[in-house]
Specification:
Helix content: 25-40%
Order of helices and strands: HEHEHHEEHEHEEHEHHHHEHEEEHEHEE
Strand content: 5-15%
CATH superfamily of the largest domain: NAD(P)-binding Rossmann-like Domain
Radius of gyration: 24 Å
CATH class of the largest domain: Alpha Beta
Number of strands: 15
Oligomer: single chain
Distance between the termini: 63 Å
């Protein structure tokens, strides 16, 4: 029997064992989804504390309930740290982070390390799917050589595919099972196996012609957001100088029933994808002699927004004859977007560090982030979220809304903040103590 008959049939019958490498914001929901629809799942993570908590049915991601983990464990889900169990799997779904170096260049060290740990357990009739966001060509340039070292050939001995993750934390309208899944394969047989795998867990699978097409698709999705957010952030800078409320402009423009899609400004980009992914493409594009000026300019605008917010805090305090140094500044929200517990690349941390460096007395409240470290290295400071109430607001010199969580009492904030900087356009109208940033 050939690869094109063995693997797809095993996936369709749900007789396959699915191995998920990396149990973070992408890997854990994916593990639970495959378990929910009837597959045997083994989840791998190098962090023994994560594995211990999962084995005890404890969640470390706010939007995932412990009851979901309990149900998966009862269905046979096994969280492990021993990579030797990879030999028991029919599919490896690699969901490890792909961050940037300090020089803002791609860092594939976690993908490479995961593959090196898995390499001894390569076997025939195995599917390997990279889900981590990366540049077009990564699967062929980084994963394929490690596979071929073991004497195995994609399309003949095993399947090599790329299927980018599309998680949207905080969005209750979509889940792992309902978000369409793009899949590209190294050969037609690889693609057939990848489609068969994901069709068992996802409502809609979108096959594309190649690995590079799938890799580029993910980058386009996130660069599209980055560029449009960069545009509206630059519009906000102009509108601020002109004394125009950019949020009122967006509301008015949104009444046009064609040719306009609203994007909203903020204190900067956060999360693992949108602030990071454009740099993967711009870095790879240089190999082809292409300078992605448009994409890079949007990145520069978005990276400038935390400094704009910090400057707006200075302006607000100056309006009441106070300096940042020694002022009690309360940050509302640290998460990079509303209603989630994710701090990755959060612009709030940059704003906080800038204010601390200026001598501010800082505190924060975030119902989703109980504690956080601000600054890096030996100068890092651990803060705890302070419950939001009238006394906290009135005792602050300036209150800065960074993340517009639904659980905030916005009437309370508006009524009792002596000075308020709004980076999300929550409040409309004119008010002497309200500054928009």
């Amino acid at each position: 029997m050939t690869l094109s008959t063995v693997l797809p049939e095993k996936f369709r019958k749900k007789e396959a064992v699915i191995g998920v490498i990396g149990l973070g914001y992408v890997g854990l929901p994916l593990s639970l989804r495959f378990s929910q629809v009837g597959y045997k799942v083994i989840g791998f993570d190098k962090d023994p504390e994560k594995v211990r908590r999962l084995q005890a049915a404890q969640s470390y991601i706010e939007r995932i309930g412990s009851d979901q983990i309990s149900a998966a464990l009862a269905a046979g889900f096994e969280p492990v740290s021993e990579f030797s169990r990879a030999a028991d799997c029919d599919a490896w779904l690699i969901c490890v982070p792909t961050p940037l170096t300090k020089q803002r260049e791609p860092d594939l060290s976690l993908v490479q390390a995961a593959m090196r740990q898995l390499q001894p357990y390569l076997h025939k009739n195995l599917l390997i799917s990279l889900e981590s966001t990366t540049w077009p060509g990564t699967t062929e340039e980084e994963i394929y050589p490690l596979v071929s070292e073991g004497g195995l050939e994609p399309g003949t001995d095993l399947a090599l595919v790329y299927s980018p993750e599309r998680e949207d934390p905080g969005n209750d309208h979509f889940s792992t099972g309902t978000i369409p899944k793009v899949v590209g394969g190294m050969t037609p047989a690889c693609l057939e196996a990848g489609v068969a795998l994901y069709q068992g867990a996802v409502d809609q699978v979108v096959p594309v012609s190649s690995l590079r097409t799938a890799e580029m698709t993910k980058l386009l999705e996130n660069i599209h957001r980055s560029v449009n957010i960069g545009l509206v952030n630059e519009m906000k800078l102009v509108a601020d100088k002109m004394g125009i409320d950019i949020h009122e402009v967006i509301r008015a423009a949104s009444t046009k029933p064609f040719g306009f899609t609203p994007y909203y400004p903020g204190p900067g980009l956060g999360g693992h994808c949108i602030p990071v992914d454009p740099f993967y493409l711009t870095w790879k594009a240089r190999e082809y002699g292409v300078h992605t000026r448009f994409i890079e300019l949007a990145g520069e605008v978005n990276q400038s927004m935390p400094a704009f917010v910090a400057d707006k805090v200075v302006e607000a305090l100056n309006s009441v004859s106070k300096s940042v140094k020694g002022s009690r500044i309360l940050l509302l929200g640290l998460a990079y977007k509303k209603n989630i517990d994710d701090l990755r690349e959060s612009p709030a941390l940059i704003v906080a560090e800038k204010l601390l460096n200026s001598g501010a007395l800082l505190s924060y409240t975030d119902p989703h982030i109980p504690f956080a470290r601000i600054k890096e290295g030996p100068s890092a400071v651990r803060y705890e979220s302070t419950p939001l109430d009238k006394n906290l607001l009135t005792s602050s010199d300036c209150v800065v809304l960074i993340t517009d969580h639904d659980r905030f009492d916005y009437d309370l904030i508006r009524n009792y903040s002596p000075l308020l900087v709004d980076t999300r356009g929550v409040w409309q109208g004119q008010d002497a103590h309200l500054f928009r940033a």
